[in-house]
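idk why but the lab printer keeps eating my pages so im just putting this in chat instead. protein + adenosine-3'-5'-diphosphate:
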Amino acid sequence: MDSDEYLLHFKGYNFERSMIDIDFLENLEDFEIRDDDVFIITFPKSGTIWTQQILSLIYFETHRKQTENMETLDRAPFLEYNIRKVDFTKRPSPRIFCSHLPYYLVPNGLKNKKAKIVYIYRNPKDVITSYFHFSNFVAVLKGCENLDLFMHNFLEGKVVGSIWFDHIKDWYEHRHKFNILFLSYEKMKKDLKSAVQTLCNFLGKELSEDDVDAVVRQATFKNMKSDSRANYNDILKNEVGTKSEGHFLRKGTIGDWKNHFTVAQSERFDIIFQKKMKDIPLKFIWDINEE
Ligand code: A3P
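predcted complex ->
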């Protein structure tokens, strides 16, 4: 793909064009929210699929106990992307959604602070690394020859999700308007069990020790990678389309950026990060050995 035609620029934000229903977007602010809805919000490549799996396991016993054969995407569908056509009004409560929307485009009903939002964030050097590979893997995205070019587009917001800094800063600065929990990919990676417990506390779900263990077991990278209902392999191959060999669950670690960034690229990014994020006290973990 040579151009940026795959991006749909709508109300100051870039969507992936082919999976968007513009009428739905136009009416999104009035989309009816139920008190027990829960939203996973992320910038792309920050752990969306992982959190879909974790929340689905927390909420649905049939998933935890594997008594029902259903793909995670159907249990926790995207709000704004029609990967599958879903009539959300017919879905039984509690509904889990995931979304990459910026704070100002989400349905107004979320502002009554009853429905819950889990915002998952990841250190942006790993987001860039993951997104660079994903763009060269998935057919609907624009591939990039090298990381330098991808980083340029990322910093300019010429990617699905627009500018990473805006997404996280805006959500953080407007957090008081929502019932929202911020949790990092890296915390989930370093101690999945306590992350699951943090999520259960926030969501008001009381799971037994055995159930928490069942969630953790089925949400590890290794187990998700080998479970076709959890890893999107079939969805990517048969519905979205791919242009090279690869996996949605690629490396699943902290600090893979070190294998891809040059020292100069890393230093350049650090300067921008320090400037843009200086007022945001969220903790970022850049290295697997970091405390
Ligand atoms: P990598 O490309 O670095 O491997 P998203 O779902 O937001 O697109 O994020 C995808 C990233 O989350 C990929 O990162 C993927 O491997 C990682 N991921 C998915 N499931 C995971 C898990 N169970 N444990 C760790 N990382 C996971």
